[in-house]
């Protein structure tokens, strides 16, 4: 009986370690936030919108693609896009593709695994 308990404990520890390793290999909240900044800069509106907060709320791995679901609060600094001072909550997702060197984001930047 004692051997069975020890075997079960070892299996559970290995399973937990595998889950943590998989999560570490997924694009991070920091990666998603960087994509947000790069995208706004690319479109030339980075001086019109300020990122107040960025939170990864979920993620889904399907083959070599990972969808990072997030919620961001954005403050508008000019009247060009929305009334100045407006803080809007945006719920969206970014899709990353797995490559040899890391995750290729929608901003065409590669993010190292687990960083």
Structure, described:
The chain is built from 2 helices and 5 strands, in the order ααβββββ. The radius of gyration is 19 Å and the shape is elongated. About 4% of the residues have low confidence. A hairpin with a 5-residue loop joins β4 and β5. It has one domain: Roll (Nuclear Transport Factor 2, Chain: A), CATH 3.10.450. A 5-stranded antiparallel beta sheet has the order 1-2-3-4-5, with helices on one face. By secondary structure, it is of the alpha+beta class.
CATH domain class: Alpha Beta
Class of secondary structure makeup? alpha+beta
Number of strands: 5
Proportion of β residues? Answer: 35-45%
Oligomer: single chain
How much is the average pLDDT?
87
Structure described in brief:
This protein is of the alpha+beta class.
Which features would summarize this protein structure in a list?
115 residues; alpha+beta; Nuclear Transport Factor 2, Chain: A; 5-stranded antiparallel beta sheet; 5 strands; 32% helix
Secondary structure blueprint with pairings:
Layout (H helix, E strand, L loop, with lengths): L1 H23 L4 H14 L6 E14 L2 E12 L10 E12 L4 E2 L5 E2 L4
